[in-house]
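Quarterly update, task 2.4: NAP-bound model.
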Amino acid sequence: MTLRPGRLVLIGHPVAHSLSPKIQNAALRAANIQLTYELLDVAPASLDRVLTSLAAQSAAGNVTIPHKSRVAEHCHRLLPMAQRTGAVNTFWTEHGGLVGDNTDADGFDDAVRDLLGTLPHDAEVGVIGAGGAAAGIIAAIERWDACRVRLYNRTDFHARALAARFEGIATVARSVRDAVAGVPLVVNATPVGMHDDTLSIPLDALAPGAAVFDVVYRRGGTALVREARVRGHRAGGGLRMLVGQGARSFERWFGFAPDRDLMWEAVRDLG
Ligand code: NAP
C-alpha cells in the first residue's frame, strides 16, 4: 500500500470507454482525497517507458486491455493473486518499484453473487477468452467448491497456455459451442460486444436454465445480455465486476475501503 500515491491512473489501449474514472473519482471525493483518477492510453511500444516513469512518480492505478500480463512481468513484487493469474489489474509503488495485484477475481465473485444469489458448486463454467480478464475469472472459479472451466478462445494457443496455468481446473474446448453447451454459467471474457452488437456466445447452444455473465459493459447493456434475457436466461453485464474490482483496488492504494454504494450509484445507469 502507498499511503498517498503521487498519481492515480488507468493504463490501457484503448481506455476512453472505461467507467473506472467515474467510480474512482466518486470514491476519492467522498474520502476527501485530493487526487484525480486519470485515463492513460498507452500503446504497447511505450509501455515499459511509461511504467518506469510512473514508478518514479510514486504512481498507483489500474491496468486494462491489453497490458495486464506485461505489467505483471514489469513489477518488482507480485501479490499471490497476480502471481496465480500472471495478470496485474492493480499496482502501486513501493521503494521505487511497482507492486502488482489482481482484484478481478474478487470483482467477478461479486458479480456472480449478484447474478445468482450464491457462488456455484460442483459445476462447469464456459469461459470465452484467454486474456487477463479470463485469468482472473478462472482464478475465482478455482476457489469455488468443486467447479471446473471449459475454455474457448479464438487463438487456440492462448487458450492452451491459460489452461496449462490452471491445470486440473480448465480444459480447452474444441469450439465455442462445446464450451457453453449444457453448463449452468457462461462468461464472455473478451471485448466482443463493446462497440457493436456482435455476440461472442451462440445463445441457441445454451441450456435453458444457464446464466450469462458478460465482462463487457455498455450503455443500455450489451447485445449478449439483452438477447440472453429475451431468451429467458439470467444475464448480467460487467458493471458489478467493475465496482467490485475497483473497490478492492482503492483499498490496496489507501488502506481503507471506499464507499462502494456511492461507486455503484456513479455508474449503475450506464451499463
Ligand atoms: P486481453 O488480455 O487483451 O485479452 C483479450 C481476450 O479477448 C483474448 O483472449 C483475445 O483473444 C480475445 N479477443 C479480443 N478481441 C476478440 C474478437 N474480436 N473476437 C474474439 N476474441 C477476441 O484483455 P482483457 O484484459 O482480458 O479484457 C477483456 C475485456 O474484459 C475488455 O473488454 C475489458 O474491458 C473487460 N474487462 C472488464 C472488467 C470488469 O470489471 N467489468 C474487468 C476486466 C476486463 P486472442 O487471444 O485471440 O487475442
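Highlight for this quarter: The pocket of NAP is lined by residues 64-66, 68, 104, 107, 129-134, 153-155, 158, 189-192, 194, 215-217, 238, 241-242, 245 (CB under 6 Å).
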